[in-house]
């Protein structure tokens, strides 16, 4: 009885701390699949073999051989990487250019149809664009853009422009209009004001849009898988998918190394992006 | 901007509807067959399977992860210091940013049929034989795989909503002796119920149309056990080259999408977001 009381006292005194520790333990538990998965991906790609789930036996670089020797039946890794960069940079360039203009217009001009365009953007974002793939296939064929990276870039960018414009509008909204007014009063034209005063202030917005566009172009799989036929236009998603299919049971080392190689830009930008992600997602849901 | 939107949204919507009335295949001939495709849908013997898969997949993923897990994470992380909380939230962002094929690989490994996979390693600890998970419980795998990505959107929305609640409410409740569960139930949840509704509505639509991770992990198999509506559309069009029938199937998704988008706009009062610009000189 006495002991029981003592324990109760202990829990009561430290209830705040115990609560915190319990919460952290629960969080670790539910996040475990993510932690273990990525941990395995990294360790496995540098090890000869693994025992007991994820204990490496011997470290090796052999798994990374696809970087310096050709894989039979696969295109050259560097050509494929180059293609992937072209798609990623292409999507990025188009998206940044159009959204930084479009976002400014939506934020600052009161033109007829403005609110319908904004409604349309939100509706398009909610709309499952993926259900249009059959029609897009026909459209790309008519435009002679099947089996072409340019087609993929155009398609990917246009699907993302509505939302990107919305995000950029959010950043422009945050620029105090007094600054712009000052510029206009000092004799700048509207365009000069935009270039010299407003644009530098929304640099973070542009950077975030750019990184997001780059990563989404870099990661694209379904369109590449469906609209690209020649190996010389493969991007890494198709390459990695192929390697996983062919070597999953034979050589996890190779599979993880290829996967990790493909993920490098994601890892590089991850911390930058995840910090800004909150701002981006919240933009549309204030209502 | 109008042009690209027109090119890749408006035209495809119209084209999808028109294509649905043809039996176009890889020869790309326009052969109008009237309502034949739509008549074929109810008699397609795979459709009942696909419909039930779609419902199971959408609502379990939504309930357990996109809303459920998202709520749990945001409630737990906001009870911690900002530093630790955002550390966990950042981890949950990782799957969303990972290329889909690489992310799929992680789940293929976790449920690998040999003893090299994580789950089968855990089974071997209690001396059980390895199990072919992709055959025994494929639906579970795709729900988990999609759920661990889907949870992050709700998580961000809920976290921001919780952080926007004035600190005084919580302090007052604590002084009155309310427990953590009491605070969550009586203060936090009622105050973010609109956000919960929003995420539910929004994610239902995106889950209904999603198929990328299923395509990568199970490809609808084994024997249609994870074939959902969007994936069935895709397979009809791009594996069997029945473009007409595929289009007819997607028209149904398109209709759901358009109706839902319109309803959301009415319902969630987006008008407040449409405030007129404050500077106007031209």
Under CATH at level 1, the class of the largest domain in chain B stands as Mainly Alpha
End-to-end separation of chain A in angstroms reads: 55 Å
Query: The CATH topology of the largest domain in chain B, please?
Result: MetI-like fold
The number of domains of chain A: 2
CATH architecture type of the largest domain in chain A: Orthogonal Bundle
For the secondary structure, the number of strands of chain B is 0
Q: Spatial order of the strands in the main sheet of chain A? A: 1-2
Query: What is the fourth-level CATH superfamily of the largest domain in chain B?
Result: MetI-like
Roughly how much helix do the residues of chain A carry, as a percent range? Answer: over 70%
What do we call the CATH homologous superfamily of the largest domain in chain A? MetI-like
Radius of gyration of chain A: 25 Å
Overall tally of domains of chain B: 2
What is the number of strand segments of chain A? 2
Largest sheet of chain B: none
Q: What descriptors fit this protein?
A:
A: 287 residues; mainly alpha; 2 domains; 2 strands; disordered C terminus; B: 282 residues; 0% strand
Brief write-up:
The complex is a heterodimer of chains A (287) and B (282). Chain A is mainly alpha-helical and 287 residues long. Chain A has two domains: 2-60, no CATH class; 73-282, MetI-like fold.
């Amino acid at each position: 009885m006495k002991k029981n009381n003592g324990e109760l006292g202990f829990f009561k005194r430290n209830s705040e701390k115990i609560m915190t520790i319990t919460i952290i333990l629960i969080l670790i538990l539910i996040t475990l699949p993510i932690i273990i998965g990525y941990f395995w991906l990294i360790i496995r790609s540098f090890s000869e073999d693994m025992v007991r789930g994820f204990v490496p036996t011997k470290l090796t670089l052999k798994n990374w051989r696809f970087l310096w020797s050709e894989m039979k039946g696969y295109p050259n890794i560097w050509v494929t990487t180059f293609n992937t960069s072209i798609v990623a940079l292409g999507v990025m360039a188009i998206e940044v250019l159009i959204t930084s203009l479009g976002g400014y217009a939506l934020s600052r001009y009161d033109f007829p149809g403005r609110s319908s365009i904004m409604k349309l953007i939100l509706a398009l974002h909610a709309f499952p664009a993926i259900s249009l793939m059959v029609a897009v296939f026909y459209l790309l064929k008519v435009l002679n853009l099947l089996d072409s990276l340019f087609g993929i870039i155009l398609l990917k960018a246009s699907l993302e422009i509505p939302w990107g414009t919305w995000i950029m509008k959010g950043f422009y909204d945050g620029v105090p209009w007094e600054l712009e007014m000052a510029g206009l009063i000092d004799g700048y034209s509207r365009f000069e004001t935009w270039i010299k005063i407003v644009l530098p202030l929304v640099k973070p917005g542009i950077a975030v849009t750019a990184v997001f566009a780059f990563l989404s172009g870099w990661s694209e799989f379904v369109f590449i898988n469906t609209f690209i036929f020649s190996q010389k236009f493969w991007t890494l998603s198709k390459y990695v998918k192929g390697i996983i299919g062919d070597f999953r049971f034979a050589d996890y080392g190779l599979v993880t190394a290829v996967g990790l190689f493909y993920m490098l830009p994601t890892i590089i930008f991850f911390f930058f992006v995840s910090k800004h992600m909150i701002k981006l997602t919240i933009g549309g849901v204030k209502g | 901007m109008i042009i690209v939107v027109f090119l890749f949204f408006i035209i495809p919507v119209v084209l999808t509807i028109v294509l649905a009335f043809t039996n176009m295949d890889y020869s790309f001939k326009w052969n109008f067959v009237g309502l034949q495709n739509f008549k074929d849908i109810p008699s397609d013997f795979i459709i009942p399977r696909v419909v039930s898969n779609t419902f199971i997949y959408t609502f379990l993923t939504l309930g357990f992860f996109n809303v459920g897990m998202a709520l749990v994470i945001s409630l737990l992380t906001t009870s911690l210091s900002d530093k630790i909380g955002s550390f966990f939230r950042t981890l949950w962002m990782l799957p969303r940013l990972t290329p889909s094929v690489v992310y799929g690989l992680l789940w293929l490994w976790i449920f690998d049929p040999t003893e090299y996979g994580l789950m089968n390693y855990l089974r071997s600890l209690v001396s059980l034989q390895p199990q072919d998970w992709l055959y025994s419980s494929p639906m579970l795998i795709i729900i988990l795989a999609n759920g661990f990505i889907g949870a992050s959107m709700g998580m961000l929305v809920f976290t921001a909503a919780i952080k926007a609640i004035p600190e005084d409410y919580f302090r007052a409740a604590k002084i009155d002796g309310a427990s953590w569960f009491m605070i969550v139930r009586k203060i936090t949840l009622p105050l973010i119920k609109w956000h919960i509704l929003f995420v539910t509505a929004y994610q239902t639509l995106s889950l209904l149309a999603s198929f990328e991770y299923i395509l990568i992990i199970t490809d609808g198999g084994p024997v249609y056990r994870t074939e959902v509506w969007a994936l069935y559309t895709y397979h009809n069009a791009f594996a069997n080259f029945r473009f007409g029938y595929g289009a007819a199937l997607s028209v149904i998704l398109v209709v759901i999408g358009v109706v839902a988008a319109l309803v959301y706009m009415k319902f969630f009062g987006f008008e407040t977001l449409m405030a007129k610009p404050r500077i106007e000189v031209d």
